[in-house]
Design brief:
It is a single chain. It is built from 2 helices and 13 strands, in the order αβββββββββββββα. By secondary structure, the chain is an alpha+beta fold. It has one domain. It is about 15% helix and about 50% strand. The strands form 2 sheets. Strands 3, 4, 5, 7, 10, 11 and 13 form a 7-stranded antiparallel beta sheet that branches. Strands 2-1-6-12-8-9 form a 6-stranded antiparallel beta sheet, with no helix packed on it.
Length: about 240
């Protein structure tokens, strides 16, 4: 009897773990004019990160010759904080036109925290590694009580940064955190959208964080861009050597 109970208990634990993995819907999409949208799901085709709740993809799309994207999610949330975090590095080809890359990321099944007194938080930072005035980046966070992937029922507002004439490179931006009230008694989705518009040989390094916390809770700052910056420098150095 004890052995049967142990077997049933182990099966229940395994089923719960399997259900958690199956319900994880972390997904991102890359889109730019003139090219098919690239969609990558957690542990699906194109995801080079085997960890659950983390996606890493690198490649080219349209006139963006080198794109490195990484996203993380802690769905269903932990210790009263739900987190969705995005990192994007984009490098333009030698094209005379200004092009825009849109990176969208979303996950479903967030339940911790939940209730009627929540705060959707958004924080953002970016670094321009090229110097053409008018290049710009935007980042916007969303939450949706319908638990729809890429749902946009509630937003905390948009962050933006634009490169000005005479800027000394590299140029870093950090905008003020944004917050919005949110309510959900059941599972909800969180999403964010990053838009990068770059000119000839443009390069940008972006980090954004979307959070859900109890009202008044702090929004974590985006992960330091310094590590990503070093990665970009190494990547670009190798790329220049290949071209030479």
């Amino acid at each position: 009897m004890k052995r049967m109970l142990f077997t049933l208990g182990a099966a229940a634990v395994l089923a719960a773990a399997t259900a958690r993995t199956a319900s994880a819907a972390l997904t991102f999409q890359l889109a730019t004019a003139g090219s098919a949208t690239v969609t990558v799901t957690d542990n699906g085709a194109g995801d080079t990160n085997p960890a659950v709740g983390q996606i890493t993809w690198s490649g080219s799309i349209g006139k963006f010759s080198t794109v490195i994207t990484a996203g993380t999610s802690n769905s269903p949330g932990s210790n009263g904080l739900a987190i969705l975090q995005t990192h994007t590095i984009a490098v333009r080809e030698n094209s005379a036109t200004k092009e825009t890359l849109t990176f969208s990321m979303s996950d479903t099944g967030f339940t911790n925290p939940s209730g009627s007194n929540l705060t959707l938080g958004s924080s953002f930072a970016d670094t321009f590694l090229s110097g053409t005035a008018g290049e710009n980046v935007s980042f916007q966070s969303y939450a949706d009580g319908s638990n729809a992937l890429f749902g946009k029922a509630t937003t905390s507002g948009q962050h933006t940064s634009t490169l000005l004439n005479g800027s000394q490179l590299p140029v870093g931006f950090t905008t003020a955190d944004r917050n919005a009230a949110f309510s959900s008694e059941g599972p909800y989705s969180m999403s964010d959208v990053t838009t990068i518009s770059l000119s000839q040989n443009g390069q940008a390094n972006v980090s954004g964080t979307t959070t859900m916390s109890s009202a008044g809770g702090a929004t974590p700052e985006p992960a330091s861009l310094s590590v990503l910056g070093l990665g970009v420098a190494a990547l670009l150095s190798k790329r220049r050597r290949r071209i030479a």
